[in-house]
Amino acid sequence: MNEQDHLANTIALKIIADDLFSQWLGVEIVAIKEGYSKILLRIRPEMINAIGIAHGGIVFSLADTALALACNGRNKASVTLESAINFIKPVHKNDIITAETTEIHNGQSTGLYQITLTNQAAEKVAVFKGTCFRTGKFIV
């Protein structure tokens, strides 16, 4: 692992350790590199909405966490400036959802990322696009 990816991993672990909501979600880190994240979670019964599928906010939150881990990996504290999600397939109880981030643009004050969300059968369930703003502060 190179020095940049080691820093990104250190930052990701700190973010998850300090983020009680991501802990409640049950987010697990699969892989972190500079400008990249891959995380997952298992859909629990309390995450199911009134029509029997995962609440969209759960899927959105997983994607937003993936964005945070990817865009903060260079130790430039960043927040979501704008985001959008397209839901493609329903997510069900006990599904394991993976969110994988691709960095599209890494700018001085903003970054643009796409997160692809898939289920355990490798079916695409959603696509999230997010822009982050670099605050000028540091994570570690």
Number of alpha- plus pi-helical segments: 3
| CATH class category name | Alpha Beta
CATH topology category name: Thiol Ester Dehydrase, Chain A
Query: What is the tally of beta strands?
Result: 6
The overall number of domains is: 1
Strand order of the largest sheet: 1-2-4-5-6-3
Beta percentage is 35-45%
Structure description:
With 140 residues, the chain is of the alpha+beta class. The chain has one domain (3-134): Hotdog Thioesterase (Thiol Ester Dehydrase, Chain A, Roll), CATH 3.10.129. The protein has helices at residues 3-18, 20-25, 56-71, and strands spanning 28-33, 36-42, 78-87, 96-106, 110-118, 124-134. Strand 4 (96-106) and strand 5 (110-118) form a beta hairpin. The radius of gyration is 14 Å and the shape is globular. The two termini are 19 Å apart.
Short description:
The chain has 140 residues and is α+β, with helices and mostly antiparallel strands. The protein is built from 3 helices and 6 strands; from the N terminus they run ααββαββββ. The two termini are 19 Å apart.
Write the topology of this structure.
Layout: H1 3-18, H2 20-25, E1 28-33, E2 36-42, H3 56-71, E3 78-87, E4 96-106, E5 110-118, E6 124-134
Antiparallel strand pairs: 1-2, 2-4, 3-6, 4-5, 5-6
